[in-house]
Every structure is written in C-alpha cells, then in structure tokens.
Specification:
Elements lengths: L4 E8 L5 H10 L6 E6 L6 H6 L4 E5 L5 E5 L3 H13 L7 E5 L6 H10 L1 H6 E11 L3 H4 L3 H9 L2 E5 L6 H14 L5 E3 L40 E8 L5 H15 L3 E9 L5 E8 L2 E9 L8 E8 L3 H10 L3
Parallel strand pairs: 1-5, 1-6, 2-4, 2-5, 6-7, 7-8
Antiparallel strand pairs: 3-4, 9-13, 10-11, 10-13, 11-12
Helix pairs in contact: 9-10
Bound molecules: guanosine-5'-triphosphate.
Length: 322
C-alpha cells in the first residue's frame, strides 16, 4: 500500500485570499501533483439532491494538478477522489482543502482522525490560516475567525500591501498571543514559497514545537481575545502518573476548549523525552529521542484554548512536578 496522501487544510475568514492562494498553487510550475478541493460541501445534503449524480467535479490541469469542486459532504468527496485515483482516472500525491470563510476547521481536521479507512489513505499535514491584514480587526471580533487562527500550524498574512509596517507588527503580536505555535508568513496576492505550505507535519508526534515557536514573552494585550495561548516550562522532572491524571481531568472538563496543545516533556526516571499533542479531545503521546547527556532537560508545553483555564492548567502542571 502506498504511503498516505498528505492533506493541508486552508482556512481563513471571508475574503482573506484563500482562492487567490489556491489559484496560484494550481497554476505554478512546481512539478507537484496537488489536488485541490474547493469547498462547496455541506452536510445538509440539499446540494447533492440538486446536483444529481455529479457531486464532485474534477478537472486535471496542464501542470498535473487536479481541481476538484465538491457539492457533497467532505467524507464522500474524499472517498470519491480515492476511487478515481485508484482507477487511474486522476493522479495526485497531495491534497489541499479550502474551507469556507465561516467554517471552523476542527470538523474538517477531525475527519482525518475519526474515519479508520480515510486514516489509512490520508494524513493530515497541517492547517494553514490566511489572515487579511487589512480587515483583521473586524474579522477577529468573530469567535470563528479567532478559532481559525488558534487551530493553525501556519498563519499567512495577506493584503499587507494595503497597510503600513506598524500595523503588520501590531497584528503579528496579537496573532502570536492567540497562537504561540504558528509561524507567521506574508503572502503577496497568493504568492508564497511552497515550502511554507506543504510538509509542515503539524500533527506528527515529534519534539518540534513549531518553526515559529519562541519562548520570548509576548507583550500584554490591549485587546482581550477569547482564544489565547499559554506556554509552561520547567526544568524539574514530571511525574508521569500525576501528569496523566491531570491531563485526563483537563480533557474531561475542558477538552472542547483546547484547540491545539503540544508538549515535549522531561519525565522522571526516563531517558527519552515524552511528546504529546492533541486537537480538542483527541490526543496522542509517544516516547521520542533520548535527552543528550549534557542537555538541559526542559519540559515545554503549549496550550491554545478558547477561554483558556489558565489557573487550572498552571496548578495541575505544578502538582505533577517532582
Ligand atoms: N491588495 C491585495 N488584495 C488581495 C491579496 N490577496 C487577495 N486579494 C484580493 O482579495 C479579494 C478576496 O480574495 P479571495 O481569494 O477571493 O478570498 P477568499 O478567502 O477565497 O474569499 P471567500 O471565498 O469569499 O471567503 C480578491 O479581490 C483578491 O484579489 C493581497 O495580498 N493584496
């Protein structure tokens, strides 16, 4: 069986530049076989009835990319694409899914964890969120726009040509407070280096906390956002039993609020680092590489959450220290 197809979710508020970026991706001569799903999908099923037998329209472009407009629910479309791939009708080795501007990327991401058969054939690589630099202030008053930022592995700033450098700087700081993990990159009318978009491995269990992750403290917020990040670090070893008890309880009580979380941890009596990461209530953990003999064994954990229960997280983490 061939290796799973990496999937990128492209999110961003209305008019943020998702289609512009995708057009660019579909036209460029990059030599990759990318399938793009443009998202007319709905769960209601109404579109499917109206459109009869053609819930998925697929077009292969000159550069080998595949453009796919779907009028059905995402799961069905993902299976249909696999059928056509397996029958040799189309060819692609990566997939990008455009979410509608008002969509929460979480259910789209969860599709790739929940469905066993889809999990064998697709692997979620990352969530990219476009942020319209010229309209971010208005967009970020909406909880859904903040959630799109909070879920992201990469934040892509569009329309920076319409604002000045100070505005971009202030916006970048605000976005960093919301999401401490995601690096921020500028996209000019859809133009951006492909390496910034693909093979991010945002959901892999590894010790990489994110390319943009910095432990630099961020300035105080002038606007209190609903979604925010909390970074905890310590050089004291953690007790694995207490830690897992705390995590279970936290997920039980606040799982729905925890958009993304990731930790690289120093566990008492263990020579390897423990890595864990999750999205909402779905999480996984694994042993990673050994700590080097001369390395400072520092545990770092980052939570991105809606109305983040900061005190509870701090107290639970503290109680798990030896
Ligand atoms: N000035 C400027 N305009 C941009 C840039 N990127 C996109 N646009 C414009 O912004 C408008 C919206 O872009 P789209 O790509 O349609 O945005 P979208 O996110 O797909 O929009 P929806 O699907 O409606 O949510 C278009 O008129 C684009 O030409 C940019 O970097 N600078």
């Amino acid at each position: 069986m061939s290796s799973p197809i990496p999937v990128t979710i492209l999110s961003g508020f209305l008019g943020a530049g998702k289609t512009t970026l995708l057009r660019h991706l579909l036209k460029a001569e990059h030599g990759l076989k990318i399938a793009v799903i443009e998202n007319e999908f709905s769960d209601a099923g109404i579109d499917t009835q109206l459109l009869g037998d053609e819930p998925v329209q697929v077009m292969t472009l000159a550069n080998g990319c595949v453009c796919c407009t779907i009028h059905t629910d995402l799961t069905k479309a993902l299976y249909l694409l696999l059928e056509r791939l397996d029958s040799g009708e189309i060819a692609f080795d990566r997939l990008v899914i455009e979410c509608t501007g008002l969509a929460d990327p979480a259910p789209v991401a969860q599709t790739f964890f929940i469905d066993e058969d889809l999990r064998k054939r697709y692997i979620l690589d990352g969530i990219l969120t476009l942020v319209d630099a010229a309209h971010a202030e208005i967009h970020l008053t909406q909880a859904i726009a903040q959630a799109q930022v909070g879920f992201a592995d990469r934040l892509l700033l569009s329309k920076t040509d319409l604002v000045d450098a100070a505005h971009v700087q202030a916006l970048s700081e605000r976005l960093t407070r919301i999401n401490r993990r995601a690096p921020i990159r500028v996209v000019e009318h859809g133009k951006i280096d492909l390496a910034e978009l693909l093979d991010i491995r945002g959901f892999n269990l590894n010790a990489d906390l994110g390319a943009g992750f910095s432990l630099r403290p961020v300035g105080k917020a002038s606007t209190a956002d609903r979604i925010s990040s909390l970074v905890l670090r310590t050089d004291k070893p953690l007790d694995i039993d207490k830690l897992s008890e705390f995590m279970n309880q936290l997920l039980e009580e606040h799982g729905k609020q925890l958009l993304r979380y990731k930790g690289v941890l120093n566990i008492a009596g263990e020579s390897r680092r423990l890595v864990f990461q999750g999205v909402l209530k779905l999480y996984g953990f694994d042993w990673d590489t050994e700590w080097a003999p001369d390395e400072a064994r520092e545990s770092v954990i980052v939570f991105i959450a809606d109305e983040l229960p900061e005190e509870k997280i701090r107290a639970g983490f503290e109680a798990a220290l030896l």
